[in-house]
Backbone:
């Protein structure tokens, strides 16, 4: 047994050391600020993109001159140990030798690319999510970087929005778990270690709620909705110690987030106690002029700094306006100094003042895309795959089957690493064709179709990547080849969906089906009567009613990263039994959007026999595949749900238990999910909310009893007076394999 006295002494000692470290930092940074000119201070608030990669509407040529003049404190879109060293050397020639900070969009891996975040979320495995962030940080820091613009935790209920690919899906509580895991993975426990990086939670706030799913659109939301459903994941990142926050492009309550003092100062700093720095999104200060809350750049600069922004990403507004704004009394010296302090403190935490070249170590190149990292990428990719349908156990494939592989996505390395795979090297990505060929001599491939025959869509989606461009002239011939090949095979595997350019930022779609020409191909192949396995590759929930009604086996594989092909073929052949579960509902059609499982009951809940109840005339209320849904090659049978008590007090714990048996023919993993409904509240409550889950492995024939401890904490919400509390009364607890198929039991909080 550990000695409690010793433990106390040790923790007091640690606390004292950390106070001492804080004091040293404070003294160092404050003394430095005292020596800085106003121009040098403003320079620290200025973040510019290098020309290696451009991730916004424009770039500033001549940014190197700004570095040399001490007028730019941070750079993004520049990496490699050699290149960042070259730029850092310029900063070392400035008067005060303040090191540059290098940021980058390391969103789902740096060079080793992991599944897109929406796919990775389907693992329901926080240790894996933390691991991929850890590896990303290790590779990024070995490649000269200090700071990643991740995690993105914008809750989203609208799959038309292309950026759902970058997020965690629709659930708030699940989003908080992911936020914590990612911050821990990137930042570790010591930012001064040379293999950790600053994380940046984004986009603060509510970006996922843009109207009609159209990127950069307006948001309008009640405070209650914000607090209950949209803010908690950002808050979880703050509580986990995230070093930086990025503002969102949208407005909140009529004021752009980047000018919103309530958001950036009252909520973020005063209520949540955030101590790091706030960076804008790309030119978000400039965009206020178009939003219409300010007249010009002068007013925009004042609005941003007054609201609590510390660093201007690429807008040049702080650089151009702050001096005059200060002279005119529109901003204060204290505001400028506080912003400088926070940014220098982050550089200090990274250890850059001790060694500005700490992350410019070319000998670390071997840490990038190491065999270990690639193995982790494959493991995570396998676990991100969601089996949506598997009629008559068509999958796994028989080892000796003659396979026709068809579809434009089966042989595209670029698509495998998905959108926002910035530094990812797609020439190293493994396609499904390559992986299947490695396994079986019985695979023949034809593309069968291009991504889409809609040239306008293609042009809009492929601004950057020409290789997606299609020549649609010979499409009939391609389709005929595919049908002929299908006829000669035992089984057809079809890799269809979206190109990576149809997803991500600035890639909203009003029609989220598989593009029409690919659907024609699918229907033509289906008409041959051969069994078809549909392997979907895409960045968002899609509308799949026809596919679900006709195609016997459907695998959702998202964009799985560098090892995509290996992961998919492992699942197709049954080396890995799929266990992924959706974190975003798949609607039946776009008319159902926004669609999410934790909706309200309404005053006229659905009653199919009553016309005057909440429903559509032409479709169901339920999505096609609900939140939490995903099948396995084996079968899990749930036994009887038991509660330890019928009544609890605020001091009690309620034990909820359920036996789960693997009653099928394969070993497998299951995500057992627990939801709660508060039946009567001082404000209306959702029909159910995810509160816990457990992912368990069960060998064939094995039974495990899964137990959850529910406490009063799990019953809290923002009450009528916006207090976070639990109200006595009746609750229902639901446990099951997804948000729809559950068992339930009631209990009372006294
Ligand atoms: C704009 C995007 O909204 C943001 O997520 C990204 O980090 C920045 N550009 C920088 O590339």
Residues:
């Amino acid at each position: 047994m550990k000695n409690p006295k010793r433990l106390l002494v040790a923790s007091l000692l640690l606390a004292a050391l950390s106070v001492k470290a804080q004091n040293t930092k404070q003294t160092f940074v404050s003394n430095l600020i005292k020596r800085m000119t106003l121009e040098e201070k403003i320079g620290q608030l200025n973040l510019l993109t290098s020309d290696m990669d451009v991730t916004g509407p424009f770039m500033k040529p001549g940014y190197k001159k700004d570095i040399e003049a001490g007028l730019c404190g941070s750079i993004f879109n520049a990496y490699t140990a050699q290149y960042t060293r070259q730029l850092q050397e310029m900063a070392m020639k400035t008067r005060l030798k303040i090191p540059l900070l290098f940021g980058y969009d390391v969103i789902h891996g740096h060079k080793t690319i992991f599944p897109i975040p929406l796919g990775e979320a389907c693992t329901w495995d926080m240790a894996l999510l933390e691991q991929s962030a850890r590896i990303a940080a290790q590779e990024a820091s070995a490649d000269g970087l200090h700071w990643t613009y991740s995690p993105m935790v914008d809750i989203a209920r609208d799959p038309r929005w292309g950026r759902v690919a970058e997020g965690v899906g629709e659930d708030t509580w699940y989003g908080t778990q992911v936020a914590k895991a990612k911050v821990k993975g990137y930042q570790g426990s010591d930012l001064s270690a040379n293999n950790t990086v600053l994380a940046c939670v984004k986009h603060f706030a509510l970006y996922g709620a843009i109207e009609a799913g159209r990127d950069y659109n307006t948001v309008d939301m009640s405070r209650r909705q914000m607090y209950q459903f949209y803010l908690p994941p950002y808050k979880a990142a703050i509580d986990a110690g995230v070093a930086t926050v990025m503002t969102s492009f949208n407005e909140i309550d009529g004021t752009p987030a980047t000018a919103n003092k309530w958001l950036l100062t009252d909520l973020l700093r005063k209520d949540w106690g955030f101590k790091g720095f706030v960076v804008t999104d790309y030119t978000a200060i400039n965009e206020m002029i178009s939003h219409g809350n300010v007249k010009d750049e002068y007013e925009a600069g004042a609005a941003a700094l007054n609201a609590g922004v510390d660093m201007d990403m690429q807008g040049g507004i702080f650089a151009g306006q702050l001096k005059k704004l200060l002279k005119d009394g529109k901003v204060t010296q204290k505001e400028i100094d506080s912003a400088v302090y926070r940014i220098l403190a982050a550089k200090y935490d990274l250890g850059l003042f001790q060694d500005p070249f700490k992350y410019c170590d070319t000998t670390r190149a071997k840490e990038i895309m190491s065999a270990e990292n690639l193995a982790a990428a494959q493991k995570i990719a396998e676990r991100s795959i969601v089996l949506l349908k598997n009629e008559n156990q068509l999958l796994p494939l028989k080892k000796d089957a003659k396979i026709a592989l068809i579809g434009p996505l089966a042989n595209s390395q670029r698509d495998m690493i998905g959108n926002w795979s910035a530094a990812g090297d797609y020439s190293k990505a493994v396609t499904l064709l390559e992986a299947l060929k490695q396994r079986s001599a019985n695979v023949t491939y034809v593309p069968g179709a291009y991504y889409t025959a809609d040239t306008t869509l293609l042009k809009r989606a492929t601004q950057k990547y020409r290789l997606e461009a299609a020549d649609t002239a010979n499409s009939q011939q391609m389709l005929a080849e595919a049908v002929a090949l299908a006829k000669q095979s035992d089984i057809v595997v079809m890799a269809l969906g979206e190109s990576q350019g149809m997803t991500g930022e600035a890639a909203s779609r009003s029609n989220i089906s598989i593009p029409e020409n690919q659907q024609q191909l699918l229907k033509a192949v289906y008409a041959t009567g051969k069994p078809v396995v549909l392997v979907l590759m895409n960045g968002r929930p899609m509308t799949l009613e026809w596919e679900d009604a006709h195609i016997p086996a459907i695998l959702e594989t998202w964009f799985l990263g560098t090892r995509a092909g290996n992961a998919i073929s492992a699942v197709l052949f049954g080396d890995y039994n799929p266990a992924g579960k959706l974190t975003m509902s798949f609607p039946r059609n776009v008319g159902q959007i926004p669609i999410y499982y934790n909706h309200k009951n309404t005053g006229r809940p659905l009653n199919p026999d009553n016309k005057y109840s909440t429903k559509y005339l032409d479709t169901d209320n339920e999505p096609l595949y609900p939140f939490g849904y995903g099948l396995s090659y084996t079968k899990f049978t749930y036994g009887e749900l038991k509660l330890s008590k019928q009544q609890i007090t605020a001091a009690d714990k309620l034990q909820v238990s359920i036996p789960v048996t693997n009653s099928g023919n394969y070993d497998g993993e299951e995500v057992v999910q627990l939801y709660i409904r508060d039946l009567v509240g001082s404000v209306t409550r959702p029909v159910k909310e995810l509160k816990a889950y457990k992912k368990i492995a069960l060998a064939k024939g094995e039974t495990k009893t899964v137990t959850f401890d529910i406490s009063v904490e799990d019953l809290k919400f923002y009450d009528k007076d916006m207090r976070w509390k639990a109200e006595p009364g009746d609750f229902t607890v639901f446990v099951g394999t997804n948000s729809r198929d559950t068992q339930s039991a009631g209990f009372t909080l006294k």
About this structure: The mean pLDDT is 96.
